[in-house]
Amino acid sequence: METALTRLVGVRHPIVQTGMGWVAGPRLVSATANAGALGILASATMTTDRLRDAVREVKSRTHAPFGVNLRADAADAGDRVRIMIEEGVRVASFALAPSAELIAELKEAGVVVIPSIGARRHAEKVAAWGADAVIVQGGEGGGHTGEVATTVLLPQVVDAVDIPVVAAGGFFDGRGLVAALAYGAAGVAMGTRFLLTSDSTVPDAVKAAYLAATVKDVTVTRAVDGLPHRMLRTELVETLEHSGRTRTLFQAIRRAAGFRRLSGLTWRRMIRDGLAMKHGKELTWSQVLLAANTPMLLKASMVDGRTDLGVMASGQVAGVIDDLPSCAELVARVMKEADEVLWALVRSDS
Q1: Residue 132, Cβ neighbours under 10 Å: how many?
Q2: What structural domains and CATH numbers belong to the chain?
Q3: Of the residues 56, 258, 313, 328, which has the maximum number of CB atoms within 10 A of its CB?
Q4: Which residues pair with 137 in a beta bridge?
Q5: CA angle 246, 250, 254 (to 5 degrees)
Q6: φ, ψ for residue 79 (rounded to 5)?
Q7: For 41-90, what is the HEC assignment?
Q8: 208 CB neighbour count, 10 Å cutoff
Q9: Measured in whole angstroms, how far is the alpha carbon of residue 202 from the centre of its chain?
Q10: 16-25 core/surface letters (b: 16 or more CB in 10 A; e: else)
């Protein structure tokens, strides 16, 4: 199925596996790439040395194009961009809008720039700066999310920009891909659906918790870092939502100390990073610390398997997913379903 996305990045199928922290590592990304979709390596939780090693590991596992997701506001964003350019990475993905200068540097090196956005005005801004495409995530998507549903946000963005638009938030099968194409998108991006594959390195007990979840078990909370964050309702979420300020601050300091040891960051740097995530919001000191060490909360679940101590970012689609296919099986199934839906539409029309 050829679309503007497949032509732009050189993949066989208009499907993107998103850059999920602690989840989208070399194994998942290379399996996605070998299946003909675009895998995105999550780098925000990696040191620069680990990023280079991870890129080389993906390249050793596949010859297909893949991308790397970056934090545009990271102090070492320039170093990470240089690593990508030196290692010949095909696509740069951003969770926050990159600057016009960063986009220009990447494009000059032949890297395709695809920021993720959650509002029409953000899409218009990065398009004007030279972005090659955008991933637009509606409120159904996991992690930090907005309030506008994909079915409302997607057509707004498609009408507003002249670059390829990839739809995210609520997609997990071939029907969704066809629906996105009908809205004018050039493909779909999926996070939770790729997390729940046999190629994902997420612990089995964590995958079981996702599979057991219903749609109502996926909630949006501000208790973690003060921003709307879609995740599974876990013991930690319940605790944070019902704790007083003193207890919450104590828990935030304890978890922040753990992340500081893991990352090597100073307390000053962590607080600065937490404040940078405020986006104009009023945050308590507990939320500033939790915002700075959200990666540690994700690691507790996604790597260590401690669903009682960590957060489990999740799209609403977790409530309708009930299996763990390989990436190859998943992509093949989505494309087969999409073909069947398209043929059914053609037959009904005739």
Answers
A1: 21
A2: 4-202+321-349 (3.20.20.70), 214-313 (no CATH)
A3: 313
A4: 168
A5: 170
A6: -65, -40
A7: EECCCCCHHHHHHHHHHHHHHCCCCEEEEECCCCCCHHHHHHHHHHHCCC
A8: 12
A9: 15
A10: bbbbbbbbbb
* pLDDT score of 225: 74
Reported as a single tens digit per residue, the pLDDT across 16-46 is 999 999 999 999 999 999 999 999 999 998 9
Q: Are 229 and 241 in contact (CB under 8 A)?
A: no
Query: What is the 8-class DSSP label of residue 91?
Result: E
Structure tokens given for 306: 């401690």
CB-based contact 288:187 (threshold 8 Å): no
Distance (Å, whole) CA 289 – CA 283: 10
Q: What is the mean pLDDT of the chain?
A: 90
Residues 103-146: tens digit of each pLDDT:
999 999 999 999 999 999 999 999 999 999 999 999 999 998 99
What span, in angstroms and rounded, lies between the C-alpha atoms of 236 and 223? 10
Tokens representing residue 269 in the block: 């740097």
- How does DSSP classify residue 153? H
Distance of CA 139 to the CA centre of its chain: 13
Does the pTM of the predicted model rise above 0.85?
Answer: yes
Q: How far is CA 4 from CA 13, 14, 165, in A?
A: 11, 9, 9
Phi, psi at residue 299, to the nearest 5°? -60, -40
Residues facing 39 on adjacent strands: 17, 66
Which pLDDT belongs to residue 303?
A: 94
Count CB-CB contacts under 10 A for residue 196: 24
Answer for the pair 115, 157: CB distance below 8 angstroms, yes or no: no
- Segments of the chain with pLDDT less than 50: none
Question: Whose CA is closest to 316, among 218, 172, 179, 207?
Answer: 218
What type of residue sits at position 348? S
User: Which tokens in the block code for residue 289?
Assistant: 């610390």
Instruction: Take residue 88 and report the two structure tokens written for it.
Output: 């010949």
Return the structure tokens found at 22: 């602690």
